[in-house]
Design brief:
It is a single chain. The protein is globular and about 60 Å long. α1 links the parallel β2 and β3. Strands 1, 2, 3, 4, 5, 6, 7, 8, 9, 10 and 11 form an 11-stranded mixed beta sheet that branches. The chain is built from 13 helices and 11 strands. The protein is of the alpha/beta class and 363 residues long.
Amino acid sequence: MKVTKTTLMASALAAVAGGAMAQEMTIVSWGGAYSKSQLKAYHEPYSEKTGITILNDDSSNEAVAKLRAMNEAGNITWDVVDVVASDAIRLCDEGLAMEIDHDAMLEPAPDGTPASEDFGELIVSDCYIPSIVYSTTFGYRTDLVGDTPPTEICAVFDLETYPGKRSLEKRPINNMEWALLCDGVAKDDVYDVLATPEGQDQALAKLDTIKDSVVWWSAGADTPQLLADGEVIMGSTYNGRLFSVIEEQNQPVAMLWDAQVFDIDGWIIPAGLDDERKQRALDYLKFATDTQRLADQAKYISYGPARASSAPLVGQHADLGIDMAPHMPTDPENAKNTFLYNYEFWADYRDDIDAKFQAWLAQ
């Protein structure tokens, strides 16, 4: 587990009344450019305001398993956890995440619109506070694809036109959907097919056609680094990570937006915290998910804020000075052909398909 202690406050705020050391919170997220955007938009201003020290843990990819283990051991060491929507649904269903009264616990929009209306349909669980809309999509090396850069998702499976290594996440989510789409399954039928053993086998058979050319990744930073190093010709990752390698690092990489998979990321509070830690977590989230803070995050990474009231406040990149709107996955030009991630499906089927996928990987 990678844990880095970042003290984000002026020295004058380093102690609370009576000389005791300032309180600490462990906030779990994904690392890399995403955690940096949270650091700038939420953590630093919150610590300056409260004197609370934030411990950053980059274990969100393992959040469900680790929270299950913590609960079983009766030792919850995390205070706030950033998870994707399907994991939030699982954690809530298993009683591992605290239920949230969005209107009572969170800030309304500046015009008084209740938080539940401002977030709208993105509240996919009673335990979940959405923060950003992002997509998982592909980047490719512009200098390695020849005179015909890829424009469609199925280029990933086309080893003849685009020979070379690809990077895919080491889990079934998204890979199985793309495989079925590129094996002729209609977009609206993908999850019905994937719910069957035969459909799962069909997806794995399609992935078999490129398996020997795949570099499997576990951390969102892996594909950008593989692309930057020229070790893969194309690879999947989160659109904000690709924005960073393209715009901030100026690497010869471009985006393949076709069949990008929309998803939501946001926060849960683990069940079982004592009242003091629970209140501290709620205070942080009330601050970090208000309209302005969500808009502020978009200054640092190309993820769309989850509140409707935040969207008009999205402006330019804090350092590059470029307009961020065209780099969002929700931009009309980028969203011509999207694939809508089914949270409920993966909440129900994740464990079983995970086991099947990992067994296939080991073959």
